[in-house]
Amino acid sequence: GGAVWLGGGGGRGWGGLVGGVHGAGHIIGNHARTHTFLPNLTRKAVEKEIDQTNQLIIDIVGTGPTLFRAPYGIMDKRCAEALKERRMSTVYWGAMADDFRPIGEDAVVSRIMKQIHGNELVVLHEGLHPSQCIKSTREIIRRSKDLGFTFEPIQ
């Protein structure tokens, strides 16, 4: 199964898509409301980032997330404590292509495949370049399966 990391900013317009992804059995995780650098925020602001996105996810799928992926992969003790209080676990990636820019499907696939050795969480960004993400995802899945890798839910 896959996971979609939702930030509150873009999530409001994607309720149908997010609901469909969840309905297909995939995980919806929290990626912070504004995708800001969390260590720069006060504890109260960090909690707001988490709580507002949690509420958005609850509003869309009916249940709150249990997983959190920090923007830029960086958080501090205050964020870790806030997540612990909410019984949420942190997830980090193992392979990323910097595909939030239009680098092309071949570059995305090449960058990811160089990082896959087994048991990595692959992060791809759909955002502004959906065609690049969709095409490269299909090819990454195909090549990974050809190498004998499987896809498992995040535990």
Commentary on this structure:
The chain is 45% helix and 10% strand. With 155 residues, it is mostly helical. A two-stranded parallel sheet has the order 1-2. β5, α5 and β6 form a beta-alpha-beta unit. α3 crosses α4 and α5 packs across α6. It is globular, with a radius of gyration of 16 Å. The model has no long low-confidence stretch (mean pLDDT 89).
List keywords for this structure.
single chain; 155 residues; mainly alpha; two-stranded parallel sheet; 6 helices; 10% strand
Biggest sheet: strand arrangement: 1-2
Proportion in β-strands:
5-15%
Question: Mean pLDDT, rounded to whole units?
Answer: 89
The counted number of beta strands is 6
General form:
globular
Summing up helix and strand content along with how strands pair, one would put the structural category as mainly alpha
What's the main sheet like?
2 strands, parallel
What's the total helix number? 6
Poorly predicted tracts of residues: none
Question: What separation lies between the terminal Cα atoms?
Answer: 11 Å
Share of helix, binned: 40-55%
Radius of gyration: 16 Å
Order of helices and strands: EHHEHEHEEHEH
